[in-house]
Design goal:
The structure holds 2 protein chains of 2 kinds.
Chain A lengths: L4 H19 L5 H23 L7 E10 L2 E9 L1 H24 L6 H20 L3 H19 L6 H32 L4 H9 L5 H18 L8 H4 L5 H10 L4 H8 L1 H6 L8 H21 L5 H21 L3 H29 L10 H4 L1 H15 L5 H17 L1 H26 L10 H5 L40 H16 L8 H5 L15 H23 L3 H8 L1 H8 L4 H43 L9 H24 L6
Antiparallel strand pairs in A: 1-2
Helix pairs in contact in A: 1-2, 1-4, 2-3, 2-4, 3-4, 3-10, 3-15, 3-21, 4-5, 5-6, 6-8, 8-11, 8-13, 10-15, 13-14, 13-19, 14-15, 14-18, 14-19, 15-17, 15-18, 15-21, 17-19, 17-21, 18-19, 18-23, 19-23
Chain B lengths: L2 H18 L5 H25 L8 E11 L5 E9 L4 H21 L4 H20 L3 H10 L1 H11 L4 H28 L8 H5 L5 H18 L8 H8 L2 H26 L1 H6 L1 H20 L4 H26 L2 H32 L15 H14 L6 H14 L3 H26 L15 H19 L2 H18 L2
Helix pairs in contact in B: 1-2, 1-4, 2-3, 2-4, 3-4, 3-11, 3-15, 3-19, 4-5, 4-6, 4-11, 5-7, 6-7, 7-9, 7-10, 9-11, 10-11, 10-14, 11-14, 11-15, 13-14, 13-18, 14-15, 14-17, 14-18, 15-16, 15-17, 15-19, 15-20, 16-18, 16-19, 17-18, 17-19
Classes of the chains: A mainly alpha, B mainly alpha.
Chain lengths: 666, 495
């Protein structure tokens, strides 16, 4: 098999994007073209994936990109085991999301635009994982950011969606600033941005310690932005304004995992980036940010009422787990959780899309009892929830447990306890979501004032809850399709339930790959993977299982009877408010940006117009005043300015000659 | 008659032809101008693509004795033209944008159409001359020739405070020119050869204090033109109030005259001074980048916003040059050279897109808009591409230039490169804030009947998008050419 096939994996979605965006504008066939393209990419990824079970050398191929003098940034492709895992996850989930979207987005006025964006995203994400040079990784990294912007802002006429798109783009770019600094530091210190060569240089101690630390922290800053880690996590919950299949693909399974992938891809740099006295400074930062983000986001997820927001905070929290796994030194644990999470979180998000589609709302207070009307969706959601909670033998159990075990063995007790507490919170909030959505009696959509007005060009506000399909009215460009079924909940069509059924399989069994160290062995040639697979730690596994079941039971108990949960919420009044307001971080950031940049810009604008330009005009006025003397000989303004300048030039010339001493010097 | 002479004076011939046309046929005027600039673009393309990059050096040379005044000392000016790897891309860019200017003006200009196009053609010759002249005096003449048509174009066909803006532009540039003229005269009269040949002057020996003085005199002219902080305040007025096509040319090629002067004159004749004062230039560059970007954020007028962003973006050129000079690396210099070209196309496209919106809506106030993507999908898409180019998104031209500038300047001035990268983040802010408020959100009912770009508007929009993407995906098409032009400069610097 030739590595050149990798170009096809990359270019088929690109071709679909170009075709849909330039030629087939507005035609429904766009959906088919995008889906076939990503399907082909998926099939082409499989031979690489299977070949790497036995092959130790990565597949490589290259094309020219930037070339300046001796310096080149070629487009090099490398497929090793880590890339192969990402390829299968990205193309596989993307394919299922494409299929789901055919049903979910049906009737949207931007149907073909939607699929061209999906293809653009797939191409960019594949470029990110295939690239061997950090500059090329950065290219893919930025292009997935653009795709995310376009898809979050897909319903651009909705103010909340437009704001969310802008916020997502700017916030992740703050992290990318760190990525850019890391590129500079590495390029200057090592003379290359080729990842294998960087790793070789770092392992041979050829990169100055300071540069390496700056680079590792810079790369991590990029990862913090992209993977929505504290303190740059604020964009991800808002990004739920995008269509739900997009949330499943980009904001759960693939793009947000790119930060985790980046740290894993450059793992030896992080290992080598030590602080004073050989402390693994960079990895310590990764571990603590990850652990804090995990528990921090899980607490917010406890009180959310929007079904997608719960899943969004859950994603932030799970990404924190992955960072924790990497931070305590286990590339395998972090990536394994990325792998299983991609399936079960995509399953949860697509199921929530099915719920929203069937119930006509995404506010859980308007749901309830949906298990009867939507049995397939209920089963899918249930399996996803068990996998997320970490119940044996579902996928999340194996990967999360490995991280928690590693955090005790190679981290410390505090990190371990954070991991276990977060596991409890996770099980609780997902049980709460299940109870509110699928159990009890259907509460139904309350009529909001915003509904009637929605959809007209003059006032497209949708009220406070902004379900993808929750408004009534006519078709408007850049707005979601109005719901035509606010009444009885119903199961979704096969084109939507089929991807759910398929995803149930890996969400259930993907974790079994860890048995006998299988996943570790698959990755053992990836730089940064050391030694043999650690055996499964039975006491910790048992403890985690008890914790997970405890969380589920608590959730069931509090929401099985009305009033219990509300009583608890009241008892913790201020804490509940703090969580509901998401620790007031959005308000804090907004005030900070307003003060620093908006006010600062206004002040500087005043300074520029009044002081800097004032001096300019003052000088001009001075000359104009002086020239009053010459008024008799001059008529037009411009002419005498010209004369003045000529006179000034002569004057300058003479002064210069005097100063430098003569016409022909020396 | 050489190819460069034809390329240079064809627009003048076109202007004369316009004079001979019967009155009142505006359409014919536009067509003739389009043909003339189109042919000129083809000629520029021939120069660009037949320039032998591997051989390098000055090619297409033409040299005639022109002014000969046998006084003591002699006053000799040559008609001396030639292009190298540094100037061919700029010649091509000038011809390209001049051609597009005809289409940008097609709907927008409807008064004194003939006069407008005559001046447009004269402007083109002036700018082309600057990029081709190898005799310093000839260079200065073209530098000044460009001012008159520009002054009239802003003053007559502009908007807002157009006379103020035009006069300010003229005086500011003339003031800078006065310094340059003195510098040139000092160079000439202190040399042992009676010539304005740039290469001959570069090989002359001058006393260090004299050379430093000349350096700062000439630098002043280029710093005004570039422009750098704090000599930039003519720019938002001129760019903001000029007619659209003229803003495109101002940003696209007129600013590049200053940048080109830094490469061609300062790096070649004053390498030691460039090295000595590089820290000063880097500091000014960083102030321009950050200050320019910060002032840009809160501009209420779309066009002035784009105009202010140029202050920031031209700061990158200076950063790349000064950083590359100290680090003796091709990467920074090539990034700076490439930035000249990419800023010309990206900012040109932004101005062109704003122009289409302005022509349809008769306002440029950001607060007046909202949700117009629903009515102008093509303009919204093009505007987004231009904006993304401006904020350095990969696969678009600006990214490669800025990446090279940062990588090249980090070595010698890590702090400056980091602040420069921060400027990119600020660009993300001002582009996104504007885009959100103008194109996204609910459609302001006032614009319910707004129509998308007309076919004639789409010519320049699509052409610029194509170039921006091409350079972003395959930057080598330009970097290899610039590299051949920068090799001798780097060698003089001692790299």
């Amino acid at each position: 098999m030739t590595a050149d096939l990798a170009w096809l994996i990359l270019f088929l979605p690109l071709l679909a994007f170009l075709l849909n965006a330039l030629v087939l504008r507005g035609r429904a066939i766009a959906a088919l073209i995008s889906t076939v393209a990503i399907g082909a990419s998926f099939l082409l990824s499989l031979p690489f994936f299977f070949a790497l079970f036995t092959r130790s050398e990565p597949f490589r191929t290259a094309a020219p990109f930037i070339q300046v003098g001796q310096v080149a940034f070629p487009f090099t492709i490398q497929i090793d085991a880590l890339t192969a895992v990402m390829l299968v996850v990205v193309t596989g989930v993307s394919l299922l999301v494409h299929i789901f979207s055919i049903g979910y987005m049906a009737g949207d006025p931007g149907y073909s635009r939607y699929f061209s964006y999906l293809s653009l995203f797939s191409m960019s994400m594949l470029g990110l994982v295939l690239a061997q040079d950090l500059v090329l990784v950065y290219v893919g990294w930025e292009l997935v950011g653009l795709s995310s912007f376009l898809l979050v802002g897909f319903w651009y006429a909705k103010p909340s969606a437009a704001d969310a798109a802008k916020k997502a783009f700017i916030t992740t770019r703050i992290g990318d600033f760190g990525f850019a600094v890391a590129l500079m530091a590495l390029f200057v210190a090592a003379g290359t941005t080729d990842i294998p060569r960087l790793i070789a240089a770092a392992e041979a101690n050829q990169i100055a310690a300071g540069a390496l630390l700056i680079a590792a922290l810079g790369l991590f800053a990029g990862a913090v932005g992209k993977s929505a880690q504290f303190p740059l996590h604020v964009w991800l919950p808002d990004a739920m304004e995008g269509p739900t299949p997009v949330s499943a693909l980009i904001h759960a399974a693939t793009m947000v995992a790119a930060g985790v992938y980046l740290v894993a891809r450059t793992f030896p740099l992080f290992e080598a980036a030590t602080g004073v006295g050989g402390v693994p400074a960079a990895l310590t930062v990764v571990a603590w940010i990850g652990a804090f983000t995990a528990i921090f986001a899980a607490t917010i997820a406890l009180v959310q009422t929007d079904i997608k927001k719960v899943l969004a905070y859950s994603t932030i929290s799970q990404l924190g787990y992955m960072m924790l796994g990497l931070g305590v030194g286990s590339l395998v644990a972090g990536i394994f959780h990325l792998f299983t999470h991609a399936f079960f979180k995509a399953l949860l998000f697509l199921s929530s899309g099915s719920v929203i589609h069937g119930a006509g709302t995404q506010d859980m207070r308007e749901m309830g009892g949906l298990r009867r009307a939507m049995p397939i969706t209920f089963a899918a959601f249930g399996i996803g929830a068990l996998a997320l909670a970490g119940v044996f033998p579902f996928a999340g159990f194996w990967s999360k447990d490995e991280i928690i075990a590693e955090s005790l063995l190679h981290g410390n007790v505090v990190l371990f306890l954070i991991g276990e507490v977060t596991a409890f919170l996770t099980a609780f909030y997902i049980m709460r979501l299940m109870m509110l959505t699928f159990f009890g009696e259907h509460r139904g959509v309350a009529e909001h004032a915003g509904h009637q007005a929605a959809g007209t060009p003059a006032s497209p506000a949708i009220g406070n809850h902004s379900a993808d399909h929750g408004s009534h009215g006519e078709l408007v460009p850049g707005m979601p399709v109005p719901a035509h079924h606010a009444g009885a909940p119903h199961e979704s069509p096969l084109v939507m339930t089929l991807p759910l059924i398929i995803l149930m399989v890996p969400a259930t069994i993907a974790g079994l790959w860890a048995l006998g160290g299988g996943f570790h062995d698959y990755l053992h040639n990836v730089p940064g993977v050391h030694g043999a697979a650690p055996p499964i730690n039975l006491p910790i596994a048992a403890l985690s299982t008890v914790v997970a079941l405890g969380g589920l039971a608590t959730g069931w108990f509090l929401y099985a009877a009305p009033g219990r949960a509300a009583a608890v919420a009241r008892a913790f009044g201020p804490v509940t408010t703090l969580l509901e307001r998401k620790y007031y971080l959005d308000e804090l950031y907004e005030a900070g940006i307003n003060l620093l940049f908006m006010r600062g810009s206004q002040a500087l604008g005043w300074f520029d117009g009044t002081i800097v330009d004032g001096v300019v005009n003052g000088v001009a006025a001075l000359f104009a005043g002086l020239s009053d003397v010459l008024r008799r000989w001059q008529t037009g303004r411009v002419q005498y300015y010209g004369v003045f300048l000529a006179l000034g030039a002569v004057l300058l010339f003479v002064v210069s000659l005097v100063w430098t001493g003569g016409l022909i010097g020396r | 008659m050489g190819l460069l002479t034809v390329l240079l004076f064809l627009p003048v011939a076109g202007a004369i032809a316009l004079l001979l046309l019967p009155r009142g046929n505006d359409r014919l005027v536009r067509i003739v101008t389009a043909v003339v600039t189109g042919v000129d673009l083809v000629l520029a393309g021939i120069v660009f693509f037949t320039y032998n990059v591997s051989a390098g050096g000055i090619q297409f040379t033409e040299r005639l004795a022109w002014v000969r005044i046998p006084t003591t000392p002699q006053f000799n000016v040559d008609y001396y033209l030639g292009v190298d790897g540094l100037s061919t891309p700029l010649v091509l860019l000038t011809a390209f944008l001049s051609f597009l200017a005809v289409f940008i003006s097609w709907n927008a200009i409807d008064t004194r159409v003939r006069e407008y196009h005559i001046l447009l053609l004269l402007l083109q010759t002036g700018v082309l001359g600057v990029f081709m002249a190898l005799d310093f005096f000839l260079f200065f003449l073209f530098w000044e020739v460009e001012l008159i048509p520009m002054y009239l174009l802003i003053g007559i066909w502009g908007s807002g405070r157009r006379m103020y803006a035009a006069t300010k532009f003229l005086i500011y540039t003339l003031a800078g020119s006065a310094f340059m003229l003195v510098g040139i005269m000092l160079l000439y009269f202190n040399s042992t050869q009676a010539t304005f040949d740039m290469f001959a002057l570069a090989n002359q020996n001058y006393a260090v204090p004299l050379k430093t003085l000349m350096f700062f005199f000439i630098l002043t002219a280029f710093a005004v033109k570039l422009p750098v902080w704090p000599l930039h305040t003519w720019l938002p007025d001129a760019h903001g109030d000029a007619p659209t096509a003229i803003s495109v040319l101002l940003a696209g090629v007129l600013l590049k005259m200053g940048a080109y002067g830094i490469f061609r004159i300062l790096l070649m004749i004053f390498p030691d001074q460039m090295r000595t004062y590089a820290p000063l230039l880097v500091t000014i560059a960083v102030i321009s980048i950050i200050y320019g970007a910060l002032v840009t954020i809160m501009q209420p007028d779309m066009k002035r916003l784009v105009a202010y962003s140029s202050v920031s973006h031209m700061g990158y050129v200076l950063l790349g040059v000064a950083g590359g000079v100290t680090g003796l690396n091709m990467v920074g210099l090539n990034g700076a050279a490439l930035q000249m070209f990419t800023h010309g196309t990206i900012t040109g496209l932004l101005f062109a897109a704003v122009g289409v919106v302005y022509h349809k809506a008769h306002t440029r106030q950001i607060a007046d808009f909202g949700g117009i993507a629903a009515r102008m999908p093509v303009v919204a898409t093009v505007f987004l591409i231009a904006g993304l180019g401006s904020l350095g998104l990969p696969a678009l031209a600006g990214f490669v230039a800025e990446l090279l500038i940062f990588l090249g300047s980090y070595q010698a001035y890590a702090w400056a490169a980091v602040l420069g990268a921060f400027g990119v983040l600020l660009a993300t802010g001002y582009i996104m804030f504007m885009y959100r408020r103008v194109f996204f959100g609910p459609l302001n009912p006032r614009w319910a009947h707004l129509t998308d770009a007309d076919p004639v508007d789409m010519v320049p929009l699509f052409a610029l998008v194509a170039v921006i993407v091409l350079v972003g995906v395959y930057p080598t098409v330009l970097t290899r050419v610039f590299e051949s032009g920068l090799q001798p400069i780097l060698a003089r610097l001692g790299g």
